[in-house]
Amino acid sequence: MNTAIRTDALTLSYGENIIIDELNLSIPRGEITVFIGSNGCGKSTLLRSMARLLKPVAGSVLLDGQTIAKYPTKEVARKMAILPQAPITPEGLTVVQLVKQGRYPYQSWLRQWTVEDEKKVEEALIATGLQELRHRPVDTLSGGQRQRAWIAMTLAQSTDIILLDEPTTYLDLTHQIEILDLLFDLNERENRTIIMVLHDLNLACRYAHYVVALKDGRVFAEGMPEQIITSSLVKDVFQLDCEVTVDPLFGTPLCIPHGRGRKIVKELLQT
Fold this sequence. Notes:
Blueprint: E1 3-14, E2 17-28, E3 32-36, H1 43-50, E4 58-63, E5 66-67, H2 73-79, E6 80-83, H3 95-100, H4 115-127, H5 143-156, E7 161-165, H6 173-190, E8 193-197, H7 201-207, E9 210-215, E10 218-223, H8 225-228, H9 231-238, E11 242-246, E12 253-257, H10 266-269
Helix pairs in contact: 4-5
């Protein structure tokens, strides 16, 4: 495997509470990797550590084979971009001003704002459908529009690696698919390495080349969705009974959870 990011005996905690325990994991370069698992299993914590937002208790995160802690901050920001959960926007900041923040890693005393910076911002606005909202304050947008503005900032950063923590949060079904299609196209067209946390198991199976299932701070299973997503895995990881069948459109695993609800008799469907 050509590895983009690797963890070596990585241990993460909040205070005395160990969240990730001696985790060894390799993220394939040029593919879409999705972390799945129940709430509190460490998905977001692991993603934050990979972006150097959380210092390990022990072990390390390696970027391109080198401990990420040794990189200068701006160099890390030129190599990877992260969209955290529920980011907070400064009051009054417009959409275009927010998206321009993605070009910060490329600015210096010797290199001020350039035509290339302007081009990357415009491409990000177009990709996320925000051209007509460019001058709107972000805090006046709907939840879905606000999420797209943050994703646009991440795209403007123009990095080979993109980390996204629940990027479809606040989005309706149409915009969920639009954003995931956008990320899929970036991977297909530009070979970007994309690492996401997703709660929707079926969308994870549809878009991911590689899935990492986390449980109790450790890797429970990892691999291609069609290789590892089974009813027994869902039961073990999510404590949920389900049937796993084949998505009729994409051929990827499709999870149908058990539970209560209306059940329509087959004979009625055939009339």
